[in-house]
Design the sequence.
């Protein structure tokens, strides 16, 4: 059995701030206690409500971004590329330093990872029935965000419900058994390079 320690994060642990197009809720950041505004974090996990029909993303030249949609759908124009549709279940990865415009209203899920210091990955599990399987991420920091439904980690006697996050810092590697009940779940992993 792995010696990983998981922590359950709830809305009481999150930090929500307003921006010009809605609100952003920081779910977790590393290192603990880092401030997004200082732009000195290794990684940051957040969810934002986009209430404007058209908006420009904040430039983050030192970070790579992975973005998915929890509710709604948006069109992203990343740098000079053709617009890309992002709906629940899809993940868009892009350089945080290039111009990004969005059209549409949504609730998103966003992983920012410092370039040259770490690599991130986001996997989406969307199901209408029970999913019982394993996730085999690389060693590093892990987060399981439950957008809807429930997720259990039987090996660790942990459970998360809609709007909650399970966080493990310094995961040593190996498979993690996930039992998901009818919901939308996002798996995020970050490994230092």
Sequence:
């Amino acid at each position: 059995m792995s010696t990983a320690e998981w922590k359950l994060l709830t809305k009481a642990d999150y930090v929500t701030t307003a921006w010009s197009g809605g609100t952003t809720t920081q779910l977790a950041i590393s290192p603990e206690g880092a401030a997004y505004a200082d732009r000195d974090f290794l990684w940051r996990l957040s969810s934002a409500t986009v209430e404007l029909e058209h908006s420009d993303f904040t430039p983050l030249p030192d970070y790579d971004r992975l973005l998915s949609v929890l509710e709604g759908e948006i069109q992203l124009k990343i740098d000079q590329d053709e617009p890309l549709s992002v709906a629940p279940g899809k993940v868009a990865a892009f350089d945080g330093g290039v111009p990004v415009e969005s059209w549409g209203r949504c609730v998103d899920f966003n992983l920012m990872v410092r370039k040259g210091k770490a690599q991130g990955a986001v996997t989406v599990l969307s199901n209408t029935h029970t999913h019982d399987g394993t996730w085999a991420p690389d060693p590093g920091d892990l987060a399981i965000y439950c957008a809807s439904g429930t997720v259990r980690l039987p090996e660790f006697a942990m459970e998360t419900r809609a709007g909650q996050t399970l966080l493990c810092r310094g995961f040593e590697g190996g498979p993690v058994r996930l039992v998901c009940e009818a919901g939308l779940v996002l798996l995020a992993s970050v490994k230092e390079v």
Summary: The CA atoms of residues 38 and 60 lie 12 Å apart. The first strand starts at residue 6 and ends at 9. The chain has a mean pLDDT of 93.
